[in-house]
Write a structure and sequence with these properties.
Blueprint: H1 10-36, H2 41-61, H3 67-82, H4 89-110, H5 120-130, H6 135-150, H7 157-161, H8 171-189, H9 198-212, H10 219-228, H11 238-241, H12 249-255, H13 258-267, H14 273-281, H15 302-319, H16 325-337, H17 345-360
Helix pairs in contact: 1-2, 1-4, 1-13, 2-3, 3-5, 4-6, 5-6, 8-10, 9-10, 9-15, 9-17, 10-14, 13-14, 14-15, 15-16, 16-17
């Protein structure tokens, strides 16, 4: 912007910043789902509502520079709802770019940093212009604006409208991808000595639990999800993911974003959509108190429920490692079995059986 945007107070800006952190993962999920289901009226309505809420919160918190961006996206989505526009690749990229730039701008302003490089003036102009175009010219102009703002042209519309089936990869391609995912996971494991062996333990527990239950989850997709479910933690300061329960409210909000980052990478790779959904949902809880979507019961994928158990088991093991390996396993099992709100009871039984086998082998 030609002049730095003003805001009412740093406290109000911080409040809006936290709200934006909450909205971002859901918006990214909705856009990703619209990529596969571009005519889904419910998804479009939910996305419209998310930007409407951003606009309302920005007004309430006095962060007024955000309002025209959210309003412009609302106008585009209103036309999608009315059927006068069709959802396409470059429009998805524009929406995500808008969200990214708003997050970066608010973060920079909270830290008293310059935001000129974000080209918010141009982005606002682009959104306003695109909201007035017809379907025939919208895609071309959208891709031109994306190239102006990022240096890269947007994708062609047909490429995004097509479904990406989960079995398009050859066996060799899947194996290559899994090696890549494992490599990423090991980078996090190596950041702290107490994480040594974590990936191998989690993978065995997850695959064995799935097998004990009759293998309802594709084991290849589950393996990818095990590797990637905590990838987003690498993007957070170590102070957050090692601090445990002593987190501030802002740190908790930042922590709650990590499933969307690992999921987002998988979502953008052909053949890993099932794993992406597992990663996104692995902190959901049967009673709806989890995050990021507040899903309940059968709305949570079985693979995500396995990940939740494995993740919690590892966390309790780490917390009680000073008790010795055998006692920490027993403590972890006791805590998991006592947490009927956090885990699906149908998965606790096969998980218990796997851990009993593990103890019997010691």
């Amino acid at each position: 912007m030609s002049t730095p945007p003003s805001f009412r107070s740093l406290e109000d800006l911080q409040e809006f910043r936290e709200a934006l952190y909450d909205y971002a993962p859901n918006i990214e999920r909705l856009v990703a789902e619209l990529v596969r289901q571009p005519d889904d009226a419910t998804l479009i309505a939910d996305l419209f509502r998310a930007f409407h809420n951003i606009k309302g919160d920005a007004s309430l918190c006095g962060v007024m520079f955000v309002v025209p961006f959210a309003h412009g996206v609302e106008n585009l989505l209103a036309r999608l709802r009315a059927g006068t526009l069709a959802f396409h690749a470059s429009l998805a990229e524009l929406i995500l770019l808008t969200l990214d730039r708003l997050e970066l701008a608010v973060d920079a302003m909270a830290e008293r940093q310059d935001i000129a490089h974000l080209q918010l003036d141009l982005l606002e102009q682009a959104i306003a212009e695109l909201a007035e175009l017809d379907q025939e010219t919208l895609d071309e102009h959208c891709r031109q604006w994306l190239e102006t703002l990022t240096g890269f042209a947007g994708a062609e519309a047909p490429a995004l409208a097509e479904d990406t089936p989960g079995d398009v990869l050859s066996d060799d391609e899947r194996a290559d991808d899994l090696r890549f995912f494992r490599h990423l996971a090991l980078q996090m494991e190596r950041r702290q000595p107490q994480f040594e062996g974590r990936i191998s333990r989690n993978l065995k527990l997850a695959l064995d639990t799935n097998q004990r239950a009759g293998s309802p989850v594709d084991p290849v997709q589950l393996e990818a999800a095990v590797y990637m479910h905590d990838l987003g933690m690498m993007l957070l300061p170590e102070a957050i993911w090692l601090q445990g329960e002593r987190l501030s409210e802002l740190q908790r909000r930042q922590l709650s974003l990590h499933p969307s980052w690992g999921s987002g990478l998988l979502e953008r790779m052909a053949g890993w959509q099932d794993a992406a959904a597992m990663v996104l949902q692995h902190h959901e809880k049967p009673d709806g108190s989890g995050y990021p979507q507040g899903l309940k019961g059968d709305g949570i994928l079985p693979g995500a429920k396995i990940l939740a158990l494995v993740d919690a088991f590892e966390a309790v093991m780490l917390k009680h490692h000073q008790r010795g390996q055998h006692r920490s396993v027993l403590r972890a099992i006791a805590e998991i079995n006592a947490s009927d709100r956090q885990f699906d009871p149908a998965w606790i039984a096969p998980f218990n059986a796997v851990v009993r086998d593990m103890l019997g082998q010691r």
